[in-house]
Amino acid sequence: MELLVAMAIVSIVAVSAGSMLVAGMRTFQARHVGNMVAADMRFAMELMARDLRAATDVSRPSASQIRFTSPGDAASLSRSFYLSTQTVTRLQGGVASPLAANVESLNFVLETTAIRITMTSVSSVDGVVGSGLPLTLTTRVMRRN
Question: What angle do CA 139, 141, 145 make, to 5 degrees?
């Protein structure tokens, strides 16, 4: 009888410990996914800001696309940033380079001497919940030219 009671107590403790371990692993995975999306978005935002700071001949074909040239570029070499299938892409010299995935929206607003960029992530990645998403980043780039 005492052995059965002891086994029941040990079983309850083992199941509880296992549940806590699984919950901890899910939380770690969710935070890791959220951190990776945030890091990609920060990288893309910084690269866009750096390129747009020196941009000339800026045009905005749509709210989620911007075209420009930079000093020193050949006249025919234009660059652009755009959102396509939840990926922010940089197009330079006909070569497309993905910068950040899992982006729900990208918006460029042209002001007199500045460009405002707003980027929002998706709300979940691969069904992982609790990742701190969606995340919205906004910056205002003062143009030199």
Answer: 170
